[in-house]
Predict the structure.
Amino acid sequence: MIFPHSSFVKSYLTTRSLQPENQESPIEHIRTDLVHPSLFYRRNHFTYPSFTSAYYWLPIRGLVEKPVCYSVQDLLRLPSRTIKAVLECAGNKRSLFEPKVFGEQWEKGAITQGEWKGVSLRTLLRAAGLKDAAKEVVVEGYDYGERTDTDTVHTYARSLPLDQAMHPDTIVAYEYNSQPIPFKHGYPLRLIVPQWYAMSSVKWIKQIYVIDSAFEGPFQSVDYVYYPYQESDEGAFPVTTMNVNSIIQKPSNMEVLNTGKHTIEGIAWSGEGLIKKVEISIDGGSTWSDAKVIPAENYAWVKWAFDWTVPVKGEYTLMAKATDSGHRMQPSTPFWNRKGYGYNAMEKVKVKVE
């Protein structure tokens, strides 16, 4: 896989924390459809796991007729699928919430896109044979550590409902952009769940098991849950698919421009459909015009652009709002929730024209 030199040179990750390592992509400067591994954002709950890949096996057990255990070489011999997909952290843009919420203060770069190659999870589950009582499929990673809320050690594990686990494009991936998955992003195997927030795309898969009830692990029942109220759990519901969203990549926030012609450009994506329209406002939302949207594959972000001629000096608030095929549109204000997930209010940057 060859990446244009300009797509990553002189661009760097922004560190949000070192223990565990959480770093943000310079998404405003990424112009390629496939994000180079060096600019892939890093999201961890614990320190990186340690294991010997030479002895790596993937067991599938639980409510199956025939428990199986796969080596990576076994998986390479099975029919493969390649999926170009957006991965977005559920906390992306958390720093923009008002009132502020606790948690990693991501700006706009907890997002990436690339091509993932692997085996459909349903291929593996069918080979094992699901029992009638099967309800959810739990995927557990090798990463583990102590949670601050319980002072107990937990491994990172998430479950999928059976219909999502059996979707043909939910894959156990072993390649990213035609290369083995980088260790910091899940080598040797990572689950990829297109259109769901990336907490479901479990890294460093340790085992997969099938259960007959709702999974109650803390990264399922405590974290990655929308809590609409500060002091109450009333009305809580799980984080699943990505909200319709967009980013203005150019111009940058607080950039100084000259009068004349400029191109406003960026990306947009959705977890429940295709982006059909992106609208741009150059006057803080008073009026809107359609941007040119470049169609993309099912799970990929779309690129969009809008030509802007600026005859008058001054300060401008540029805004973008995307609409998907299900008529979901970015709202003017986000759905506030106390853990700060799913921010998708209309995109906004300010510029000065001199």
Summary: The domain at 5-223 is CATH 3.90.420.10 (Sulfite Oxidase; Chain A, domain 2). The chain has four helices and 23 strands.
